[in-house]
Amino acid sequence: MQGWETYRLEDLTIDGKGHYGIGAPALDYDVNKLTYLRITDINDDGSLNYSGLKSVDAPEAHKYLLREGDIVFARTGNSTGRSYFYEPSDGQFVFAGFLIKFSIDPAKVNPRFLKYYTHSKPYYEWVQSFDTGATRGNINAQTYGSMEINLPPREVQDRLVDILSSIDDKIKLNNRINHNLEEQAQALYRSWFLDFEPFKDGKFVDSELGMIPEGWRVGTLSELGDIVAGGTPSKAKPEYYTNNGIAWLTPKDLSVKCNKFTSKGEIDITEIGYKNSSAKLMPRGAVLFSSRAPIGYISIAKGDICTNQGFKSVVPKYAGTAYLYYWLQENTDAIEAQASGSTFKEASGSLMKSFPALIPSKDVLDAFEDDIMPILKEQENLEEENGHIEQLRDLLLPRLVSGEWLFNNLTC
């Protein structure tokens, strides 16, 4: 197109090359240490996954801090090509060894244009050209640096970035609100069921979990809800799978974007596929818990859904959705510690059913559910709004970046 020019990525950087991250061990998250940015902390859409952040405390770590205008790329495995454009408002990050950093020169290109370019069709096609059979090939710093990028004039870049950034800002605002709501919900759960603050004036009795309010007891998770294992139709029968059938979830679906509420996975199963598997359809409000590879993804069903065998989910019975969700959050590490397996650890159905659980009185559980459900409903609404906004962004982005649509008007 007129006015467009092709550059290599390295031509658009401050120093003309990419830099590998630090090869240091990840530590448990500590607010007093630097935060470690790894491939697993970056979602496919370039946003951050804050749920599993780690820290780093290596002597040279400060040399690998990201700065404004930096973009990092995953260089190996099935995540190759995943990118994150650093925003100072996200906090301080030290980038890890399986990431490659390029420091973009704002005098040569609007740095955020590259952020959006790396989520466009031309970029994905370039990454896919390195696929080798069933696995995605590695891309090193030199190869990333040689990647060709077709750029429009600077004024068009700037106006495009303004359009897409306004969408991203709304998504970030919703995410911040949701994060604050989540902190409120977690604090409420811990106040009631860990610190027993509303019940401190009452009588307490001894139990295997320590002192608990009188009238409460220690039982098992299966008394709080029904434990439901998932199932997978035969992969050899394509007629068992569809894009518009019965919602079916795998742990991989939650690894891409682990929302608090889930309506479907990447692919559905057909009615015949459902009948020819051990999958069970669970209702809205069921708490979906991945029991292997990895243990501990947690989400709430937005409607009828089933899962593969990588889940041991909990359908509310004596306790409601909110108590079960936060109980599983608090007890994931303890469940994982008792999981077993030779290839990978798995929390078996028998382990989940028999796992010791605090069982408050029914009136307390009902009161907790009444108090916390407005928070969960607001979180669900914000996630749904973000979904619609992301669809709009994903519709606009490829047309804007390729110049297929709107650029002619932008340059008028």
Annotated CATH homologous superfamily of the largest domain? DNA methylase specificity domains
> Biggest sheet, in brief?
4 strands, antiparallel
For the residues shown, what is the average pLDDT?
Answer: 92
**Any idea what the shape is?**
globular
Oligomer state of the chains in this structure: single chain
Describe the structure in your own words.
- This protein has 412 residues and is of the alpha+beta class.
- The protein folds into 2 domains: 5-151, DNA methylase specificity domains (Adenine-n6-DNA-methyltransferase TaqI, Chain A, domain 2, Alpha-Beta Complex), CATH 3.90.220; 217-359, Adenine-n6-DNA-methyltransferase TaqI, Chain A, domain 2 (Alpha-Beta Complex).
- β5 (70-74) and β6 form a beta hairpin.
- The chain is built from 11 helices and 24 strands.
- It has helices spanning 111-117, 121-128, 141-145, 154-193, 221-224, 251-256, 271-275, 321-338, 349-354, 362-402, 407-410; strands at 5-8, 19-20, 34-37, 54-56, 70-74, 83-85, 94-95, 99-103, 131-132, 135-136, 148-151, 204-205, 212-213, 217-220, 225-229, 241-242, 248-249, 261-262, 268-269, 287-291, 295-301, 306-307, 312-316, 356-359.
- The protein has a 4-stranded antiparallel sheet.
